[in-house]
Amino acid sequence: MKKILISLGLAAIIGTLIGINVYKAYNPDEYIVQTGTLQENEVAGTILLPATLSFAQEQFIFANPEKGRIAEILVSVGDTVTAGTEIVRYESEQLNLEAEQNRLALQSNDLRIQQIQNQLSTLDDKEDDLALQVGGSQAEEQIEAERNSLELELNLAEIEREQTELQRQTIDRHLSELVVTSEFDGQIVSVDRTAVSGNSQGTPAVHIGSGNQLVVKGQLSEYDSTKVLPGQPVSLRSDALPDMKLEGSVSTIGIIPVSAETAGMPADPNAAVQYPIEAAVTSEEITAKPGFRLIMEIETERRTAQTVPQSAIRKVDSKDMIYIVEEGKAVAKVVELGLSAEEYIEVTKGLTAEDLIVLNPGDDLKAGMEVTAND
């Protein structure tokens, strides 16, 4: 009998232990979550697009056979120039010949005019001498005819000189064009001295950039172009220089889309419409160089909104979801999101001000689990 009682006691103890283990299996240790409610924070709408760092102003001077041969390049790489600085001087044998012919023609015109004026000045004396020979009336008539003829020649000579002077002005203008000057204050970026010998093969003889005045250029989609306005702030970063962050602002948005032909690509009627955008770089210390590829982030709007930490969002079946605590259990709610900041994101639909939000749910948190909120 005693053995039976001992066996029954052991069976009871074992059953109790099994029950406890089963209970623990279905009721794990207390799951503590950090919770909070919707908070007002400043959020911003942004647009990201690739861009290229460029000079605000650029001037490319190519060899121009119509002007003649490049006689001299007057600058070197790195030189600082101001608007009007002489950069390249051409030499044109044909234009020099025309200038010399024009100079001689002007001298000839002047001599001819002087000759006619001298002839006119002697007519009165000539008339007196002629009057002694043929009489005063006939002398006056002959001299008057000669005077009219000389005055006509003088008028024609003066007209011819005016035409020659116009030619001189045209030649002088062409001669002045043989010297190419800088269009703005800047710096010499590159010089190709092979252009002097005519072997530049399509590269510019001189490239001038606007020094520290830099811009970024990119292209906006048709949709994004409706949200971007001049003056909106811009942040710039580079994969090549991860520690660099530049600031700027939108300066211009093109009103005409970039065509495929303009971009150097074949036309595609199904291609997305792109609009050119340019932003001025306002940062003073710029480690990137013109030509660098950058990521341009344009802030299109900024406002105060009801937000949650970015860490509270979970993606489930392509839906944005947030866990809240109701009656001691985790409840999943599908939400709609809006603008974001670095740490926060706007919730536009799906939560109320009273909801107790799980701020940083673990991967093992499931809907329906019993949780303890730790505010």
TrEMBL record:
Domain called YknX-like barrel-sandwich hybrid: residue spans: 59-209
Pfam families attached to this UniProt entry: Beta-barrel_YknX, BSH_YknX, HH_YknX, YknX_C
This protein's UniProt keywords: Coiled coil
Domain annotation YknX-like C-terminal permuted SH3-like: ranges: 305-372
Subcellular location: Cell envelope
Annotated YknX-like beta-barrel domain residues: 214-298
Superkingdom, natural source: Bacteria
Coiled-coil residues: 113-169
Ranges for domain YknX-like alpha-helical hairpin: 93-176
GO CC annotation, single: cell envelope
InterPro entries membership: Beta-barrel_YknX (IPR058636), BSH_YknX-like (IPR058639), HH_YknX-like (IPR058638), UPF0194_transport (IPR050465), YknX-like_C (IPR058637)
Protein's name according to its UniProt entry: HlyD family efflux transporter periplasmic adaptor subunit
Organism the protein comes from: Metabacillus lacus
